[in-house]
Design brief:
The structure is a single chain. The protein is of the alpha+beta class and about 325 residues long. It has 8 helices and 7 strands, in the order E-E-E-H-H-E-E-E-E-H-H-H-H-H-H. It has a 7-stranded mixed β-sheet, with helices on both faces. A hairpin with a 2-residue loop joins strand 6 and strand 7. It is rod-shaped.
């Protein structure tokens, strides 16, 4: 558990212990899933607020969706953020639990959470505006989490462009369709996650008892707009994946048509030649042409002239 004091006259600083909440500013209790601590009793000793047992049960559910709940004394926000190591799961997420109390913010999160670690370092080195209320600090952390989703847009777009190039390359046929279909599935999950995040923030914005100043109201609206941009990106990417599949089938159909066109032209040229060869291959006893001294050369010459004539006709009609 890390304790950080923010706001007031003193600069942001880490504390070993805390005995009371400040009259100005706030205290941030940053907790990890993996550690065992009796933090609800510490919260109750500092603020006089007891965390409801149902909410404590929610913190043990790492599959919990984004969610908002509140009591007369505090607000609880569950917000799913991007996992640092996704592996095969492109948009793997874990929940972070926020408890907002007067002059106190409690976060319960995974040990490798980048958003909270980066936010903490920026606050301690005064690289960003220092919040004076828990709601302001919560907004900064949520913004860092959402910005990580926004950062995915460029590499995902480049990956889709690479797939599109491979699909239309006739020399290297694309066959990894499980990857494409899996990508579409992940994008659907991202869209659903954005809807959960958006609903949670809207409910928080409408139901909070904390008075929102103009600056914070604008910042929360901006955060909602970022989530909506990610959601639109997920929808657009799904449409592009569908277009990619259609492009593949169109390319396959085009290549098939080209092959059939060449085969049809070859058949059209050799069909009359086969007819001539079949006529001269008849086993009749009286065939005057077979007795001609130059009949063989005349037949070959006629067949060559016929084949060349057909090629010229096809060329003029732009069939080849």
């Amino acid at each position: 558990m890390e304790i950080v004091r923010l706001g007031g006259d003193a600069a942001p600083q880490r504390l070993e212990t805390v005995d009371a909440l400040p009259e100005e500013g706030l205290v941030w209790l940053d907790l990890l899933y993996e550690e065992e601590s009796d933090w609800p009793k510490l919260v109750e000793r500092l603020s006089g607020v007891a965390i409801h047992e149902y909410h404590l049960h929610d913190t043990r559910n790492l599959a919990h969706p984004c969610y908002l709940d509140r009591t007369a004394e505090y607000e609880m926000i569950i917000f799913r953020s991007l996992a640092p190591e996704t592996g095969k799961e492109l948009f793997a997420t874990r929940p972070t639990f926020f408890f907002l109390i007067d002059h106190l913010l409690v976060t319960l999160r995974p040990q490798d959470s980048r958003s909270i670690a980066e936010t903490k370092e920026k606050l301690l080195h005064s690289k960003i505006r220092i919040p004076r209320r828990p709601i302001g600090l919560c907004h900064i952390i949520l913004t860092a989490m959402v910005d990580r989703f926004l950062a995915l847009r460029e590499p995902l777009t480049e990956m889709l462009d690479q797939w599109r190039t491979e699909l239309i390359d006739p020399n290297n046929p694309f066959d990894d369709w499980m990857m494409v279909l899996g990508h579409r599935h992940h994008l659907r999950k991202l869209e659903g996650l954005c809807e959960e995040q958006e609903d949670t923030l809207l409910a928080w914005q409408e139901q909070t008892d904390v008075e929102l100043d103009d600056h914070l109201a604008v910042r929360i609206s901006d955060l909602l707009e970022h989530i909506q941009r990610i959601k639109r990106f997920a929808v657009e990417q799904q449409a592009q994946v569908e277009a990619l599949v259609q492009l593949h089938f169109s390319a396959v159909a085009h290549r098939t048509n080209e092959i059939m066109r060449v085969l049809t032209i070859i058949s059209a040229i050799f069909l009359p030649l086969s007819l001539i060869a079949g006529i001269f291959g008849m086993n009749f006893e009286y065939m005057p042409e077979l007795k001609w001294p130059f009949g063989y050369f005349l037949a070959l010459g006629g067949m060559a002239i016929l084949a060349i004539g057909l090629l010229v006709v096809f060329r003029r009609k732009r069939w080849i």
